[in-house]
Amino acid sequence: MNKSNASSSNSRIFMMQGNTACAEGAIAAGCRFFAGYPITPSTEIAEVLARRLPQIGGNFIQMEDEIAAMGAVIGASLAGVKSMTATSGPGFSLKQENIGFAIMAEIPCVIVDVQRGGPSTGLPTHVSQSDVMQARWGTHGDHSIIALCPSTVRETYDLTIKAFNCAERYRTPVMIMTDEIVGHLSEKVELPDPASLEIVNRQRPTVPPSDYLPYQMTASDIPPMANFGEGYRYHVTGLAHDETGSPTNDPAQIEQQILRINRKIERYRDQIVEVEEFETQDMEILVIAYGATARSAKKAVSLAREAGLKAGLLKLKTLWPFADIEIEALAKSVNKIIVPELNLGQIAHEVEWTVRRAKPVIRVNRINGEPITPAEILAAIKN
Fold first, then answer.
1. pLDDT tens-digit readout, 23-47
2. Residue 228 exposed, middle or buried by CB count within 10 Å (0-12, 13-18, 19+)
3. Would the pLDDT of 5 be above 60?
4. I need a labelling partner for 273 at 20 to 30 A (CA). Which of 101, 155, 160, 265 fits?
5. H-type alpha helices, 171-313
6. Annotated domain spans of the chain
């Protein structure tokens, strides 16, 4: 992270890499614990936090593998520390069981997936967006999830802060689905004054330990969370449980809790979902893109406008919950929808479902580790 030569001595203008922005955003959000295992193309996040966290009273630990890293993050969060891990496709796969545990036990934490080509070892140093559905359904069972997706270095910083805020506010794991291009891209960014940031901390219990119910049915659907070591004793399990956290086979209590952990995200989707529109005011062709591909899509839309074609872009900053309401509204006025993405159509399928095939959805896909160019998206706009 280099201070720009053009900046004053107290300026917050930097030349910064995407992975560095993720680490700095985590620190700004209050992250004080990171556990991980090195894996390309996410390792710079760990490298930065290994240096920075001890400087501010935090802790960094390299675990023996990604499974253990996710477990350590869960344990630190239970003790009251904002916690994060970072990985890529193969490691993301290994973390899924413990991600499911964190969902069921309602433990706030942040998981960064800097996506690379797959399946398996795949393309360690090349870009992909093929973990999108794994973020949604990688762990088993009925659950809702929050997954954010930056396309610029500044967005990486901002969405990392948002990820921690969502994790703390909704008592849930939150994923940041960046990719190799955005993670390794360096851009000039101006970071906000830390004093101006909204930082959310988990709601704490106001009742004495004897009256505390860690999974209480509340009006907000989000029960307060006590930190281990502060006098509150409660059971934490991945098993179906009642309001006390104790395992149960009572069908009514099981259904009540599972519905609540889904509802606590779905009922707040309007506060979670974030999109950005570009040239949509009079568009006839809608391009929907996210991550690194949104950069090419924005250029393609600009080129289309220069050629007299009324194209517009909807950039998804939130992948899950899905921006179905926003897409459905924009789709009413267009003739076709184009979805470029670095997979075989994972988001395109959701778009088709959203518009109920009332409008043609054109897929522009790539899975060989190379980015989709503006010219390729422009060709789809023109056809």
1. 999 999 999 999 999 999 999 999 9
2. middle
3. no
4. 101
5. 180-184, 251-266, 269-272, 291-306
6. 2-196, 275-382
Q: Could you say which DSSP state residue 355 is in?
A: H
376: burial class by Cβ within 10 Å (0-12, 13-18, 19+)? middle
The DSSP symbol for 79 reads: T
Instruction: Give me the sign of the Cα torsion angle 335, 340, 344, 348.
Output: negative
Query: Is the CA virtual torsion 322, 328, 329, 333 positive or negative?
Result: positive
For 129, the 3-state DSSP assignment is coil
Q: Give me the helices (H) in 178-238, please.
A: 180-184
Superfamily grouping for domain 2-196: Thiamin diphosphate (ThDP)-binding fold, Pyr/PP domains (3.40.50.970)
165 closest CA partner among 176, 177, 180, 154: 176
For residue 1, is pLDDT > 80? no
Q: Are 19 and 183 in contact (CB under 8 A)?
A: yes
Model's pTM, two decimal places?
A: 0.96
- Residue whose entry in the numeric block shows the structure tokens 């413990």: 98
Could you write out the DSSP letters of every residue in 287-347? EEE-HHHHHHHHHHHHHHHHTT--EEEEEESEEES--HHHHHHHHTT-SEEEEEESSSSHH
Q: Are 317 and 155 in contact (CB under 8 A)?
A: yes
Residues 303-342: pLDDT tens digits?
A: 999 999 999 999 999 999 999 999 999 999 999 999 999 9
Fold: same for 2-196 and 275-382: yes
Token digits of residue 255: 């259904």
Tens-digit pLDDT profile for residues 168-183: 999 999 999 999 999 9
For residues 85, 90, 93, 98, the Cα torsion angle rounded to the nearest 10 degrees is -30
Task: Report whether 292 contacts 182 (CB < 8 A).
Answer: yes
Amino acid code (one letter) for 280? T
Cα 3 to Cα 6: distance, rounded to the nearest angstrom: 9
The CB density around residue 154, as the number of other CB atoms within 10 Å, is 19
Topology annotation, domain 275-382: Rossmann fold (3.40.50)
pLDDT of residue 120: 97
